[in-house]
Amino acid sequence: MKTKEELIQARKDALDKMIAISTGENFAQANYDAAKKEVDSLTAQIETLDIQAKLRNQVDDVLPSASIDKDKEFERNAFWNMAKGKNLSIDEMKALSTTEGAKGGYLVPETFATTIILKSAEKSYIRNIANVSTSSHTENIPVEGDDGENGWIDEEGVYPESDPTLGQIQLAAWKTGRIVKVTDEALDDTVPAIENYIAMKFVKSTVKSEEKAFVDGDGVKKPTGFLLTAQIGKVAASSVAITSDDLLDLMGSLDPDYEQNAVLMMNKNTKNLLRKLKDSTGQYLWVPGFNGDPDTFDKKTIVINKFMPDVATGKKPIAYGDFSYYYIKDRKVMTLKRLDELYSTTGHVGFRIDKRVDGKLALPEAIKTLRMA
User: Fold this and answer.
1) What domains does the chain contain, in order, with CATH numbers?
2) How confident is the model at residue 162, as a pLDDT?
């Protein structure tokens, strides 16, 4: 596989070719589409390398070089021996005795829960830029409506009273889960292999349900999406097209306090529309990232999220702001229950697994949206 530097150079060459085609006298749509496809492919490869590097750093932070505690390793093996349907020793049963028991499912080992959270971050669009933490209980996040004000004071004068307006958001613990089926033959595999298989199946479906909820969830038994509460920064003049003025007005609507960490979030279809937008001098506002930098529009980072809506009447296809004000709270507790009989006729064993999470935007003014007419 090519190095990141080689991929960046290849993308630069492909982009130059795409721009030359789009601005040339003998424009051919097929040639333009082929060049754009190459740019997209190279961009995806670069993003994959960036995600892998970030995940390795996260693993180093969460799991330092010291070996796993022997008690935790024993608990882990006992748990997966239970999952494999083996007869457990008395000590192994004791290792699981502090969990919810067979009726409600066993609490998964800490190492497995950590794997789920880290791999979810690897595949998530929002978790990498949101405020993410773990907790064992419902949590109230204090929110300041304003900061209060200083006054100019005479010597020995009276200090003005100006307290900040305080509020709070509550992060609950909504349950998301599924049943993962494993063949009888696969259960004869090693513990790490089974653990990884179930983890990856659960992560893939969990990220889909979580990510969609983080974007447009209604808050009913699921997280509240930022599109639901973020302020509208600009209403586009059209219901089917976006202009450079629409985007610049949206970005200009954000309070300067949130500008430093602000990014643009949209899906890939919308990004393709932005690629064609130019400023008043005819220069493209969209610029591909080089030397490890992300793609930008008017010098602001573009984050692609496939769960953002397409351009259509009344939709909000673009959000701009500081996503660190979107809070995601993972519960440490995850449960897994082995279902022996349900799928036995097809040679499978089911594993019912669930986790709990919530997400909310703390300050609606921290993220602005573009709404189509």
Assistant:
1) 132-150+163-373 (3.90.1690)
2) 62
